[in-house]
Amino acid sequence: MIRTVRRSLGLFALTAGIAIAAAPSLEWQWPIDGGNGVLQVELDESVYRHIQRDDLGDLMALDADGQPIPMGPLSQVWTPPSIRELPMQPVPLFRLPAKTGDTGGDAVELHIRRDDDGRLSALDASVTPGSGGNDASSDILLDLSALKSSYDALQLHLDLPDDASFDARLQIDGSDDLSHWRAVGGDHALLYLKQNGFELVRDRVSLPRVSHDYLRLHRADGGSLPVDMIEVRTLPAVEVTPPQPRSLRLSGEAMDDEAGAFTYRSPGPFPVSRLDLETSGDNAISAVIISSRSDDKQAWRERGRFTLFDLEQSGARLHNDSLMLRGDSRDRLWRVQTKPALRTAPMLRLDYVPDRFVMLTQGPAPYRLAAGSATAVRENYPLPALLSEIRRNSDADWRPPLAKLGEGSALAGNAALEAPSKPLPTRQIVLWVILIGAAFLLLLLVGRLLKQPPEGGD
After folding, report:
1. For residue 237, what is the enclosing H or E element?
2. What is the pTM of this model?
3. Alpha-carbon span 148 to 213, nearest angstrom
4. For 372, left (φ over 0), alpha (ψ -120 to 50), or beta?
5. 107-161: per-residue pLDDT in tens?
6. What is the pairing mode between strands 368-371 and 301-313?
7. Domains of the chain
């Protein structure tokens, strides 16, 4: 695999080499710690604060000489597999006799036999009925020792009559040796309702990413589990680490021409997907209209409406749901209109998922991320072709390793944000000089003609 990646990188370097030119003037820089080859980096708040362009075009990766190296948005060159597309596979299922829970309960002897690889080869149980002998419910034991990867979901195939209803809470424990068990997540709901031609089914259990060899399923109410097959959703060997949502809080300023209206300015082109308002803590309720625009020259665009409430009731704090935007917005100006008018500006919380970029290290190290320029724009590199070639010749779950950004520091500073003075329009100046000169000569000619006496005059 390593040889294949190196060959792909060499091919890319020959076909998409970078012409040596003057280093771009960029305001700020962050060291990249992640090795060589194809890497991905995740932007943090400090990077967004220095990006000038809304399309992130003034964000670049540089080598030690200050020359740009190939870089582009990860979303445009590689898409992780959808969680819904990951395979599900059935696993061995064993039923365990459960204790009845009273002092006169059944005596249970459990005989377990495992192969050298840890898989269950035999499971026998003998039950001696006790004095309280009612039918004991049975837990379910899953043998997942043959799986070579972790998993995060169980699909239960319920065995129920057509007209039956089922509602239960499921508890799951995990173990690697069948002796020591630990809870996996909290309670899980199982539901099957069929009424008036409608069905409501919840037969899939979501788990945190785990890799226990064995799982034990138990009904919290002590009933039985009418299940005839259980499938597990396995995950890639290399864990997909999606960017985690982050929040940015902005203080507002009251608008002079409208009561209860406030404006907010974002310090960068954050990809905002959700927002909320946070009051100072007093009970508040108001109808809210949220608008945004990219700059002062654009018209306001409405983003959504909701009812803001922040109340304290019986010792508990009640707050409205946050507003989901229909699409990510990188607007830097936001407006909040409230009716009835709020007396003070609430805090505007902008939630966003940070962008990730993929880069190819070239030239001398160390490498760095740089942003902030009035003129520099990142080139469009053919990175999709590179990653397609690497994936074709590598493991199916290969992805660029995630590099870390160090603490930022000034590069060119504020000088990179100053637009260069426009050169003198030499051609226009020459044309105007010629035009003015021609007009002056024309005036002289007309003056001379007017001074000459007419022919045949006295």
Report:
1. none
2. 0.59
3. 10
4. left
5. 556 666 666 666 666 666 555 555 444 445 678 999 998 887 788 889 999 888 8
6. unpaired
7. 2-80+355-417 (no CATH), 88-234 (2.60.120), 246-352 (2.60.120.260)
